[in-house]
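All the exercises in this workshop are built on plain-text protein records. There is nothing in a record beyond a sequence line and a structure line. A learned vocabulary of local backbone shapes supplies the integers on the structure line. The question running through the whole workshop is how a given chain folds. Here is such a record, shown just as it appears in the course material:

***
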Amino acid sequence: MKNLLLFVHQDAGQEARLQVALDLARAFDAHINCLDVSIVPMLAHDYAALGGEALLLSEERAAEAANSARLKARLAAEDVAFTWQEAAGDPALCLKEAARLNDVVILNRALDSATYPNMADLAGAVLSDGGLPVLAVPETARSFDVGGHALIAWDGSHAAESALKAALPLLYRAGGVTVMHVGEAMIALPPEQAAIYLARRGIHVEVRHDVSDGRRAGVQLLSHAASECDYLVMGGFGHPRWYEEIFGGTTVAALERSPVPVLLGRAH
């Protein structure tokens, strides 16, 4: 975990993203690749035709320029390695373009105090490409405990396997690791196999089976995350709104309500 792609934009989640990136950069002696995005607004056709879009984009760029100056000064004072890239347009497309040769992209789950930008949709859209794990952090996060307890949500899917492998740098440093399966006892690739995989790498874990209590799996999982872990590792299934009905909403639940940072991986 040496190359961290950090989404920079002046919004309610920016401080959380920044603080998590700083903790990871220090822990792994990593480089922060900052992508500062001026978001092009979506406007009604008549207003756009009158030049409204250009005016709002100009205002957005001015605001981001001030934001950029502040953050560059802060990063320089933090004594971490970073680079800066600017882009304008759809943030999902900008992030996908910048994602190559990075190890993880740091975003937010849904913001609690604002609806713009739609961070759950953004994280899901980036994840749908399958090229890069997403670390989605709550708006209130002010640190990332690399030595904390990791909870791995295991359903035997290729996406869960991808997330587990993406999390290996973190799991080596975790103070504890639990692999949890929620639902029916029998699955094709049980959590015990994930535990063996990790044990062969010197990572010893606790395996837990949690029988469904009638709630959706995502809700049940997050109730454990709230009290039992410092971060969550789980497979993701692309854009949350598109896939909610197909995959039971577990990705949606994590991106909307996870009380802890969640590392999402998707099968290629």
